[in-house]
Amino acid sequence: MISTTWAVLYVAVLAAFAGYEVIRRVPVLLHTPLMSGSNFIHGIVLVGAMFALGTATTLPEQILGFVAVVMGAMNVTGGYVVTERILEIFDRSKAKKGPP
Amino acid sequence: MISFSITDAIEGVYLLTVVFFVLGLQRMSSPATARSGIVAAGVAMLIATLVTFLTPGLSNLLWIAAGIAIGGSLGFVAAKKVAMTDMPQMVAIYNGMGGGAAAGIAIVELLTGPNFSTTGGLSVAGGLIGAVSFSGSVIAFLKLQGWMRQRPITYPLQQPTNLIVLGAAIVAGALVVSYSGMFLLPFVLLALGFGLLMTLPIGGADMPVVISLYNALTGIAVAMDGFALGNYAMVVAGTLVGAAGSLLTLVMAKAMNRSISNVLFSAFGATEETGTTIAGAMKPIEADDVAVMMAYAQKVVIAPGYGMAVAQAQGKVKELADLLEARGVAVKFAIHPVAGRMPGHMNVLLAEAGVPYDRLFDRDEINPEFPTADVVLVIGANDVVNPAARRAGSPLQGMPILDVDQAKNVIVLKRGQGKGFAGIENDLFYKDNARMLYGDAQATVGQLIQSLKAMKE
């Protein structure tokens, strides 16, 4: 059986290639939403923060865990709303192009 | 015998979430599909968050819910209210929040005491990178928001000092896992300090590189935390972002023909070029004359820069483009990759003002068209149109620019006679085919619109 450490490394390396290949095709036009979209995706840190707070036993752990949850939640919602707002603009700017 | 537990169900949801993240980024390759991709990724993230509550053995559930409610509503309201021109600092601060959360998770792991293992090492690395991304992003936010001056802040022996702080942070981190938890606080403070010190000497025009870099760093910190926690969704999502952010960082640096280390460590713009004088003089022009030139042109190219964003002139610029098009003039927009304060900044502003995105052209697409352009309108851009980039010895040397100087007429809309961000004289302003239209961009474009409207068809 392959050790977990190595399994995670394989996963990470493949994910890096997937990320590179996917991002390479994004046009310059969409660089802002790409940046804020990937900003939103690392908001998955919220799940880790929930875990940290959920398994915290001492007060310092709980305080830090709580702060991490608040920050992670800001990252997720803020990142999502910003990205959605930007992409909505590009939707609209396309709609205006067509005949009235 | 097949057994299926709640943990398997949760892992299954995480796996699907990761699939939707990749698909979401993939759909970003076209403006037509991008929005649906991010909505799908958003739903996946929501479900992943909800099923995490079901994790066996998880306590403090009320506190978790409260934290999500507080952070979520703060993030939501701020992101809804912010104006498009303030987007760069918003992206910076949300990225900083992610870095802070990643650092927090790692510190909680380290609080359990010395743990000389792969997990301990990863927690130190995740904590260091997350903390650097947090404090660095906060400084970037303060600079972009204008609460701190945008020009590089420098002092003697800056780079050696920064290196010592970074080295000390790494040593403190190593001591935390190998020796004693008493080094945890110094470790965190040194890591935060390094992020702060590293960002101080970076100026406003280099922000596109810096924002993408910290985005990549937060991704990497999240992946390391995921490694330490045994959460594959975090590993994959974090690595995806790390790769995406690194690629974008390289693209931005390449667009300025500078290396990442040059952007980070050279305090570009703090020094002035000396010893070169440019022949000729800047020749001013009146708005009425510019309006006439454009009204009878075949093709007009507009090259916007950060100055357009500062003057909030994008709405007027769109109105001007519409008026010209109504007269049968072909209007195109030339977008330099690093114009503005974040990657793609000008595209977002112009699209918001209602300019159809098929009129927005990347540098490589538009450069061959400048020789056939009758008028080029440079609005608040400076360094990205400076032909000094083609001259050996200039600090801009080698930077791929918009070749606006090849057009028949170049009109530069500029607030005053000052230099660009890099503090470098702009050769363009002294060219025979260049004319200067001074004033606030919103006001001058407004005058152009008035003159055009006053003209007979």
Structural class by sheet pairing and helices of chain A:
mainly alpha
Question: What's the total count of β strands of chain A?
Answer: 0
Please tell me the overall pLDDT of chain A: 88
What is the count of structural domains of chain B?
A: 2
Q: Would you identify the regions of chain A where 5 or more consecutive residues have pLDDT less than 50?
A: none
Proportion of helical residues of chain A: over 70%
Work out the helicity level of chain B: 55-70%
Query: How would you describe the oligomerization state of the chains in this entry?
Result: heterodimer
Protein model, in words:
- The complex is a heterodimer of chains A (100) and B (457).
- With 100 residues, chain A is mainly α.
- Chain A has a domain of 69 residues.
- Chain A is 79% helix and 0% strand.
- Chain A has four helices and no strands.
- In chain A, α2 packs antiparallel against α4 and α3 runs antiparallel to α4.
- Chain A is flat.
- Chain A starts with a helix and ends in a 5-residue tail after the last helix.
- The mean pLDDT of chain A is 88.
- By secondary structure, chain B is α/β, with parallel strands linked by helices.
- Chain B has two domains: 260 residues, no CATH class; 170 residues, Rossmann fold (3-Layer(aba) Sandwich), CATH 3.40.50.1220.
- Helix content of chain B is 57%, strand content 7%.
- A six-stranded parallel sheet of chain B has the order 3-2-1-4-5-6.
- In chain B, α14 links the parallel β2 and β3.
- In chain B, α5 packs antiparallel against α6, α5 runs antiparallel to α8 and α8 runs antiparallel to α9.
- The longest helix of chain B has 28 residues.
- Chain B starts with 5 loop residues before the first helix and ends with a helix.
- The interface between A and B is large, with 83 and 113 residues.
